[in-house]
Structure formats: structure tokens, C-alpha cells
Prior knowledge:
Elements (H helix, E strand, L loop, with lengths): L8 E2 L13 E5 L3 E2 L4 E2 L5 H11 L3 E8 L2 E10 L10 E3 L16 E2 L2 E4 L9 E13 L4 E7 L4 E5 L2 E5 L3 H15 L5 E6 L4 H6 L7 E5 L3 H10 L1 H4 L7 E4 L3 H6 L5 E7 L13 H10 E10 L7 H11 L5 E8 L7 E8 L16 H4 L7 H6 L5 H8 L4
Parallel strand pairs: 2-5, 14-15, 14-17, 15-16, 17-18
Antiparallel strand pairs: 1-2, 3-4, 5-6, 6-7, 8-9, 9-10, 10-11, 11-12, 12-13, 18-20, 19-20
Helix pairs in contact: 8-11
Amino acid sequence: MQCRPSFCTIEPKKKTTQPSKRSVMRISGSHILTQKWHYNKISSPLLIASSLLFHQLDCVVSSFPFASHHITRPLFVRGGGDNPNDSTFKMSNQEEEFPQGLNGMDLVKDGWFHERGELWKGQAMSLEVKNILAHYRSDYQDILVFESTNHGNVLVLDGVIQVTERDEFSYQEMIAHIPLYAHPNPKKVLVIGGGDGGVLREIAKHESVEEIVICEIDKGVIDVSKKYLPTLAKGYDDPRVTVHVMDGAKFMEENQDSFDVIITDSSDPIGPASVLFETPFYNAMHASLREGGIVCTQGECLWLHVDIIRPLVNSISTKYTQVEYAYTTIPTYPSGQIGFIVASKGEREAGCKVPVRKPSKELQKTMKYYSTELHAAAFVLPAFAKRAIFGDDE
């Protein structure tokens, strides 16, 4: 659903002996219009704060109609008390008007988005914000999309960067092409998660694939991606794609021995994605794979999460014939790296480390990151990571 255009109204600051009464600027929809300034899209927090100074307002209240959700909450508040001369600004901490849970806008301060995650304490990733494009809470998570100054549009779920237009191809290409080129003839592919559509875009490059099924539990991710991440979401345009908005585990229970390749493009193992990192989910994927099939899942960061990766690898090794770990580099993910757990149902002479098919020269030109050489190199781990994940005997 498109955001409905509307206008902002300004209540001028009135002289009063009651300093607790504050003037308010209300912003509704995706358009802002005053006598002095006009923006086509919602201004960045820095611009909004600047406008407050110009108009000498005390508070910005936003009301964004998006999809079926409607949010009304203070974004910025002048000062911390009743002093009308206090010109400092801070993010509002009023939570009663916002559904419980993390509020992504609280991570936008002074015109910058600051990512601080529970899984990478002690470090942060910051991107300068040009415009806030969308923000609301779906039934599952907080969804924020903003335009950055040098990374294009950015999708953030529960405060964690999922996609930036500048570097998304590294992740999308590797998580898709590693399992697909390791399979001799993939015809039916399942994607769990991946609502932004980037993995679909890459799978669609394989002519052997006859059917692509995606199970994304949160329709909100699909909606914002189609609107604000069109270069990724064009993956939905392929006629081979079938979309199911539902729990992927339930879908696999109903579709066993059905897929040649299963790709789990999930967020981190907290919140709604936590079940995707547990042994029962890997068992469900195994049952849904055809003999000789391959799964490839988001495998966290070898610099930060070997305590998550190693027990998971050990656990699924009891079910899958071969389990391997590959990785790629991507600047806007924690520590600039993300890994993939690649597992096969049935013996493979070289596992999944060596591609059994190669992209044509013309197809290779459409890829910005993946290559046959990089496919093999992705499985070469630093010594510390190899020992930490697979032990000294590997």
C-alpha cells in the first residue's frame, strides 16, 4: 500500500505563563509542506531537528500511515524539562504510543543511524541518514527503511541492518550461487525468509530451475522491499516464483522430499528468526530435501559467533552427510563478514566446495561478487576459525 500524501500543520508557539504547554509540529504521511520549506519525502531526523529550531517548536509528532499499521509518537523533544529556553534535542523515550519492543527510530540520533546489537556488544555500525522512508512495527518486528548518504536505501529489522543497496550483492550472490552451482541440476528451490527478494533475483539466473518457492513470515518485509528496494525485489517478478506468507517450518512439514536446494536467508538468531538456528529446523529442512539436495543458511560471523556456529555445525552433522562453512565479506555487516553453513543430503566427492557447474560468460557479467574461483576460496577459513568450528582434526 502506498503512503498517502498529506500535509503538516504547525501550531505556532503562544505566549503563556504555563511553560509546560509546548508547541507541536505534526507530520503526517510521506509529504511535508509549510510556507517556508517543502520536501518530497520525510526529512531526516537532522533536518527535522533543524526545522524545529527554525520554527521554535518543542516537539515533533509523527503520524505515518503505512500498510495496515499506523504509528503516532513523538520523535524529537526539545530539552528535558520545562525550561522554554532549553534548545537541546533528544530522542523521545515515550513508549506508550508505540507497540512494545524495540523502536528503530531510537537508534537515529543527530542524523546518524547507530546499530548496536546484542550479538556484537562493544562495537557499533553507523550510517549517515539522508531521509527516513518508512518506519512501523509489523506483527513480528520493528521495520525501518532509510536513505543513507552513501549506501543507498537501507533496510533495518529490530535495529539490525539487513540490506544496503551498496553492498547487498555480496551476500545475495554467495548465499544463492554457492549451493546452486554445487548442485548438478537444481530444478526446485525453496527460500525461507529473504523477504527483500535479493536471493530470488539470483536464483532466477539459473535456467535449470523450474520452480522457486519463498516462505516469508512477515509480509511487511516484502511490502517495504518492493517499494524501497526495487533492485532486490525485482526477484518477485520472475514467473517461476511462488510466495507463501507463512512459517517456513510448517511449510516444509507439508512438503517433504520436495526440493533440490533450500536457502535460509534469515536475520540473526534473536526474535522471530531464533528458531531458524535450532536443530529441529535443520531436521525439517533435511526431510524437505530430495536425495542429493543441498541447504545453505545464514551462518553468522566467524569473528564474533563461533560459540553459536560450532555447536550448530556439530548438531546438524549428525543428520547431514557433509557440513561445511563458507563466508563472504560485506562492509555493513558486523565485523565486515558473514558466513554460510552449507550441508548436503548424500555423499559428494568434493562436498560443496567445488562448483560442478559454471556461469556462462554473459551470466558472469551480471554478477558483481560471485565467481567460480571465489566459490572455492570462500571455504578456505582462517586457522583460528577452522579450529574453532571444526576442531583440531579437521
